[in-house]
Amino acid sequence: MKWILPFLTIALLFGCTAQKDAGLNMEEQATDETRYKAQVNNSEANNNDRISMGEASRRLAATARTMPGVNDATAVAWGRYAIVGIDVDANLDRSEVGSIKYTVAEGLKNQPYGAESVVVADPDLYARLKEIGQDIEDGRPLQGLANELADIAGRAMPEVPGNLVDDRADQSTEQPKKKLSPSESRELEKQQEEQSNHHK
Predict the structure, then answer these.
(1) Which pTM does this prediction carry?
(2) Where are the alpha helices (DSSP H) in 36-175?
(3) Tens of pLDDT, residues 160-170
């Protein structure tokens, strides 16, 4: 019995101390949680998410049409970007066309997708953009869109003299060394057809 009383006293002291520390840890933990709480900025929904790409294209084109000097406009929006093509008088100087493009860009900057848009006044690009917009409205496959964009990029890319391939007509052979027989030619066509999964 002599040992039980001191043992209980020590257990009671250490037990209460552990309980007291646990209470402090909870308070510290609550303080840490409030210290590391995430601050939320104004979470207003982005206007770009509320409208479709077709609607964004129509709005951009309508806004561009209202600008002075613009006869007609078309737009194609995708992702967060857009291309706006404008039709202007053919007899305008380059500086006047640049001024009209700047005015259109200023008018578009507060529109959804307008801040990330490119304004072009080239007649060929305008016609191609109009065709792309019509294809999208008609629900045609994206292959037509890809072809038009490839044509636009090919037209806009400059030719660099250092990248041009030299024609070496003087070094070419005058006659092929071996002609294929008709059966070999048919066999070659058959292999090509199989390799292309029967697409022409």
Answers:
(1) 0.51
(2) 53-65, 94-108, 123-137, 142-156
(3) 565 556 666 56
